[in-house]
Amino acid sequence: MCASVKYGSRGPALIPRMKTKHRIYYITLFSVVLLGLIATGMFQFWPHSIESSAEWSLDRRSVHDAPLVRIPMSSPIPERGDLSCRMHTCFDVYRCGYNPKNKIKVYIYPLQRFVDEVGVPISSTGLSREYNDLLSAISDSDFYTDDVTRACLFIPSTDVLNQNSLRIRETAQALAMLPRWDKGMNHLLFNMLPGGPPDYNTALDVPRDRALLAGGGFSTWTYRQGYDVSIPVYSPLSAEVDLPERQPGPRRYFILSSQTAIHREYRVELERLKEENGEALLLLDKCSNLSQGLASVRKRCYKGQVYDYPQILQESSFCVVLRGARLGQATLSDVLQAGCVPVIMADSYILPFSEVLDWKRASVVIPEEKLPEMYTILKSIPHRQVEEMQRQARWFWEAYFSSMKAIGMTTLQIINDRIYPYAARTYEEWNNPSVVKWSSVNSPLFLPLIPPRSPGFTAVVLTYDRIESLFRVITEISKVPSLAKLLVVWNNQNKSPPEAIDGLSLDQTHMVERSECINKFASVFGTMPLKVVEHRADPVLYKDDFPEKLKSFPNIGSL
Amino acid sequence: MQAKKRYLISLLTGAFLVLLFYFGGGVPGPAATGSRSRHGYSRPEQPWPHFSDPLQHFSPWDQSDTEEYNVHISPRQKRDVNSSVYKGKRCRMQSCFDFSLCQRNGFKVYVYPQQKGEKISESYQNILSTIEGSRFYTSDPGQACLFVLSLDTLDRDQLSPQYVHNLKTKVQSLPLWNNGRNHLIFNLYSGTWPDYTEDLGFDIGQAMLAKASISTENFRPNFDVSIPLFSKDHPRTGGDRGYLKYNTIPPFRKYMLVFKGKRYLTGIGSDTRNALYHVHNAEDVVLLTTCKHGKDWQKHKDARCDKDNAEYEKYDYREMLHNSTFCLVPRGRRLGSFRFLEALQAACVPVMLSNGWELPFSEVIDWNTAAVIGDERLLLQIPSTVRSIHQDKILALRQQTQFLWEAYFSSVEKIVLTTLEIIQDRVLQQTSRSNLMWNSHPGGLFTLPHYSSYLGDFPFFYAELGIKPNPKFTAVIHAVTPLVSQSQPILKLLVSVARSQYCAQIIVLWNCDKPLPAKHRWPATSVPIIVIEGENKVMSSRFQPYDSIISDAVLSLDEDTVLSTTEVDFAFTVWQSFPERIVGYPARSHFWDNNKERWGYTSKWTNDYSMVLTGAAIYHRYYHFLYSHFLPSSLKSMVDQLANCEDILMNFLVSAVTKLPPIKVTQKKQYKETMMGQSSRASRWADPDHFAQRQTCMNKFASWFGGMPLVHSQMRLDPVLFKDQVSILRKKYREIERL
């Protein structure tokens, strides 16, 4: 800039006098400046990847690098969750703001390692693999923001998925220490295994003020409808075992029970059912002869016979998911993955994502006390419905259960739908497998239009060259009393009147062209959307032996 | 000089670049350092890091096992504990409802007998008579699963003239009260000025509430039912249809968003309406409030009142309602308001501004498909929100308002039945209706879950599921005369129907007093013939949902019907395109008789029809179930006593469900003449009483349905090329023309 001013004072006369050599020199100079500008610009708008990739290769990140935070004994404890919290009372909607994308912004607190005054960590496991997966999935998603001031929802990095590994009081204090905690407003906690012995509460026991809870195993008494989100208990098996989808249909067993630690009371009842119905039921239990540990998780036994789990689930039409100490069971996820219809017996359980998923289409819910009637109840379900449910179960797993990412994204989408209800995903989008999607395209053409109840229609006349017949059509149509408007589409750009009036349909190339059109259109649609019918609509007294003048439409058929 | 100049320029360029680099590249620096210093972290804040260390699973493999084995408390005990602990405000079906009462006799509702001297408001009277006229009603409390008080609980506003005093003692003295267990209490208004609490002013015990304006905090999910606020003029049955007469594309109307109503100035619920003027623009967003209400409004009057009142007078409410795309439904003193139903009926998409209102029938209705749920806190965003809604969505919302209005809200009867059906769904549990049944045509009241829980078994969801009905039909022949000769029309009919390529089986319903004929008397056919002896030999038995009907389609036939195989085939192909309607041959029509002020019935040849008689018609087997289980016994016994009108009733039923006319296929002109020549049936047709009876039936049916459900049609479906001047050899259904 300085340069141009300096030479600018001498006027433009200088430039034409320059030699070719100088011209090249100036061109090079300007290119250098331009390149410099571009490089700076790129650096400006693309700083992170350049910076971070360099940094990543340098230090492999470890959870142990996270800063240590000591919780003072006297640090405040949040209040227990308020059961009357709802979005309009405990959630600050102003933070989400109005945005054209209708998408909430989610902030994740950086990882910290909380310890108490004597240096004992608040959690025995620290960050779990699943919670790490969940948070990285969220940070990779559209919801994520690294700008804490723009965030609408805050997710603590403290892992509370499993209450067993937590020290309740200290965890609560750690939460309250978060810089934006503000009585838990707009904070979201993920918990899959709530409660502890002996009575196993159905919601996380950690006091959490107004924080939203995405919990696995809510009962109707702890679930704050429209505020909390009920999530599944993730099954780590789903990542390890690849069960290919199976065609729906009847399977080898009718009912399968694969849970290992079923309460005695229920096992007795299941065994009685097995006695009554024999081979149709398969009751599996833990293998007693196998060593403990991971291998035993993948095996089930019945009278000394060993079965592979979860593969065996694919051999049954229905799979029992009974409540245990907790209402939410990881088995549900395995069962859905196998395309087996879950038979859920857990009174008062709020099914995962029940706010949006229509579980009636993918599962059978039976009250616990009706366990002895299970067989008759299931037998009464029509075959076609069972197949539909098997398909739906598998689809639910794929879309909403298969990974921590799926679980996290679904949870955020549900909260998003509450904040922007007018842009919420529809029932069809949540519940219809993609196969069906094509038939319910969201376009006004596909809406089940309510037939108009007022008389009147618009006539659209497409014309190409045939002026005479066009006039005839217009005069005829305009006689119709219910005609509201007549629209003529003039398709002739070159204006060359035809020689024969009715030449169009006799013209062979015309029909060939139209056949080509049909093939082209069908290939664009991917299928032939036109349907063949063998009927046509006629007036009621069409061509009947009846006085013509008494007919409503006497001319039809004689045209 | 050249060298000097060159040197200078390169120096300048260098300096320039350095400057650029500093200002450009240096900018992120401070921000990054800022965030760094914040948590004492060595790195800038950024997406969640990808940790390299091996992390543990959140739940050790053996955790659940060990835990479960250590649980000693029996599940049964646990259930008992739950049901004893969770009472009152924490009532749920599991803890406050006795399911065993419903298992014995099904879902039956008992209404307490009305006591002398008790005043009952018109609205509550309508509710009670709806229940008494419904198929759920039982007069025996021993059979009942649900109890409804005859004490008027609708208006619990102490200042209201309808308020019933001493309700507490009256309720407690009821012998069957049982602390409200399995009781349902209807309520429209609760609380009074100034705080409008949702308390009913008496102890409801474990009773369920069907309440208007209920808030999410007080609403006990899956136990209470939120009902809409309706006025005392709301019709008992039938009810007006929605006002949407036609769809316009694009779907915008004169106004974008309107509201006209009272403003309370102070007190509960006044904030939102007081702020509406901020959004009002007098063009396409017209939000009008008036301060004039009550006697002493002048006392509380604020600075805006006069201006607002003047503006308020300028517009006509009904004009705005019918010409607006969206209608604002802000809360009043209570959460619900009449605006809601008014907007719904007028196809004006409701924009809810009533934080914490549990919307009517929220347990089953997906309100996002018919309304815009706004937030009172974000009033100023409302105009831009509604403007951002795409036209396709507006069209979909608008149509859904009409569906919901007609399916659940247009009459007191519908509101009450919907409430009962929701509770029944909870009792039925796994066989209850799915969300799709409630939220798509024809709605939950016509989709009976006992029939099947599978959507594909109903005639309404084929398109949604992407499937087709079963490609076969079952013929049901109604036989009333003994088999004496081999030339009887029923035998000819059997043969020609059996020859149809779509016929799966033929059921002969033997409704004749004479004993069943020997098996060999029936002609040999390629499809099985099943003979069922009618139970009481009554008319209604022809529409029994027999288990032996295995196909989706039923071809219903009279024994003297003359029908060729081609006609059967053609009618069936037409039915496959219209599986929810009656498709058949003999058509009849109804008309309004101005002189007699009643409905008339005609079998004359006319230019339109509204019924297709079930003497030769195909329809979905679901309608057999609906006929037997949906219609009240009063109508069915009328049909049985007259031995007449069953076909009219079936047409009423199907048209009430579909809101569409039946479909007549190619003229079968012999129908009438052959009728006359026949013995048994002909005598009935010749009988003038028979015709008069049918008129009476029509009027009786229309009064039960609350209106005339039949719809006229001017269309008949013929085979393509029917009676066209082309060679007969090119026609597929050529036999039809020869008849």
UniProtKB/TrEMBL annotation, chain A:
Regions that span the bilayer: 24-46
GO cellular component: endoplasmic reticulum membrane
Protein name: Exostosin glycosyltransferase 2
Glycosyl transferase domain mapped to chain residues: 457-499, 503-542
Gene Ontology process terms (BP): heparan sulfate proteoglycan biosynthetic process
Family designation: Belongs to the glycosyltransferase 47 family.
Keyword annotations of the record: Coiled coil, Disulfide bond, Endoplasmic reticulum, Membrane, Transferase, Transmembrane, Transmembrane helix
Coiled coil ranges: 256-283
Pfam families tied to this protein: Exostosin_GT47, Glyco_transf_64
Native species: Cyprinus carpio (Common carp)
Compartment(s): Endoplasmic reticulum membrane
Topology with respect to the bilayer: Single-pass type II membrane protein
Alphabetical list of InterPro entries matching this protein: Exostosin, Exostosin_GT47, GT64_dom, Nucleotide-diphossugar_trans
Keyword Hydrolase applies: no
All copies of domain Exostosin GT47, residue ranges: 101-381
UniProt keyword Coiled coil, yes or no: yes
Gene Ontology MF term list: glycosyltransferase activity
UniProtKB/TrEMBL annotation, chain B:
Residue span(s) of domain Glycosyl transferase: 473-722
Gene Ontology BP, a term: heparan sulfate proteoglycan biosynthetic process
GO CC terms in record: endoplasmic reticulum membrane; Golgi apparatus
Record-annotated Exostosin GT47 domain positions: 104-389
GO molecular function: glucuronosyl-N-acetylglucosaminyl-proteoglycan 4-alpha-N-acetylglucosaminyltransferase activity; metal ion binding; N-acetylglucosaminyl-proteoglycan 4-beta-glucuronosyltransferase activity
UniProt-listed Gene3D superfamilies: Spore Coat Polysaccharide Biosynthesis Protein SpsA, Chain A
Pathway of action: Protein modification; protein glycosylation
Cofactor: Mn(2+)
Location of the protein in the cell: Endoplasmic reticulum membrane
Keywords in alphabetical order: Disulfide bond, Endoplasmic reticulum, Glycoprotein, Glycosyltransferase, Manganese, Membrane, Metal-binding, Signal-anchor, Transferase, Transmembrane, Transmembrane helix
Major location category of this protein: endoplasmic reticulum
Membrane topology per record: Single-pass type II membrane protein
Catalysed reactions, semicolon-separated: 3-O-{[(1->4)-beta-D-GlcA-(1->4)-alpha-D-GlcNAc](n)-(1->4)-beta-D-GlcA-(1->3)-beta-D-Gal-(1->3)-beta-D-Gal-(1->4)-beta-D-Xyl}-L-seryl-[protein] + UDP-N-acetyl-alpha-D-glucosamine = 3-O-{alpha-D-GlcNAc-[(1->4)-beta-D-GlcA-(1->4)-alpha-D-GlcNAc](n)-(1->4)-beta-D-GlcA-(1->3)-beta-D-Gal-(1->3)-beta-D-Gal-(1->4)-beta-D-Xyl}-L-seryl-[protein] + UDP + H(+); 3-O-{alpha-D-GlcNAc-[(1->4)-beta-D-GlcA-(1->4)-alpha-D-GlcNAc](n)-(1->4)-beta-D-GlcA-(1->3)-beta-D-Gal-(1->3)-beta-D-Gal-(1->4)-beta-D-Xyl}-L-seryl-[protein] + UDP-alpha-D-glucuronate = 3-O-{[(1->4)-beta-D-GlcA-(1->4)-alpha-D-GlcNAc](n+1)-(1->4)-beta-D-GlcA-(1->3)-beta-D-Gal-(1->3)-beta-D-Gal-(1->4)-beta-D-Xyl}-L-seryl-[protein] + UDP + H(+)
Family designation: Belongs to the glycosyltransferase 47 family.
PANTHER family listed in its UniProt record: ACETYLGLUCOSAMINYLTRANSFERASE, EXOSTOSIN GLYCOSYLTRANSFERASE 1
Role, per record: Glycosyltransferase required for the biosynthesis of heparan-sulfate.
Protein name: Exostosin glycosyltransferase 1b
